[in-house]
Amino acid sequence: VAKEKYNLEVELIPFNDYVVPNEALTNGDIDANAFQHIPYLTEQSKQRGYNLVPVGNTFVYPIVAYSKKIKNISELKEGNTIVIPNDPTNGGRSLLLLQKSGLLKLKDGVGLLPKVTDITENPKQLKIMEIEGAQIPRVLEDRDVVVGIINNNFAAQAGLDQEKQGILVEDKDSPYVNVVVARQDNKNSQKVKNFVKAYESPEVEKKAKEIFKGGAVKGWD
Known about the structure:
The chain contains nine helices and eleven strands.
């Protein structure tokens, strides 16, 4: 789309770490990134002093609980282990998902960024383990891990199908729409504007549906 409509050459660079794309953008190694939602960008900018801004929307990728041991979340037994991402926002999303399912209760007023220490009730004494998001699909095979809560991009890379294998799915109207992010010094460049136009297109929406098997919901009008 970018090439055909805007004569824009786009090089896609995959990252396996949530921190590196914003570092690369800040350092000028890339012109934009498209992997994060605003709560994550806000948290990282506060922690690391980034001067980055959202310039367009991409998709909502609902976070999903997967298991190789059980078929329904109600089958969890006392003391079972649940693995969640160790970054603040996606870990928080996971805890909010577990609270919504009735498995635990969080402190009032935690907003979108609860931590494991904010758990006030855990009737089944579930063990919540935090690890790097990209590693969670692999540990689903571990004997002690019953459930892993996984971001859609890592789930797709691991060949997991949300509709067939997900046992708990975040609402698709969640506040975690992913965004295209640029620097303050290039946010108004024609190149970045054309990239956003190309991304927010029916062609990209159709391709995302194929790749993510219905697990990507467009975030633009």
